[in-house]
What does this fold into?
Amino acid sequence: MRAARANSLPPEFLVATLLQESAFDPGAVSVAGAEGIAQFMPETAAGAGVDPFDPSSAIDGAAQLLGTYVADYAQRYDDPFSLALAAYNAGPAAVRAYGGVPPYPETQAYIDDVIDRWAKIAAAEAPRR
It folds into this structure.
């Protein structure tokens, strides 16, 4: 997946995140107001210059955001992918406030679900390489 590689992410990680966010539904809208395949909040999408309902724009934006988080957290934490997911789900301010994954059950379950999906996708893809 081009967007993942362009942002130094394992493609399976981005796929697992998008699967968790919207099950790849570009028209998804959550009860909280998150929009599109990558479930951007309107303010976040606007700030990132992303059209949340355009799959290409949203995937590129999600990859860029996650890649930025991973790169930033890799300098300070042992598990930058979990922290990147925490920031994507709960916001980077929550990660800063708690000095790591915030103690929100929803965020913790989200991280576990994405990491589990990532492992399954990577295992399924391994024989193809």
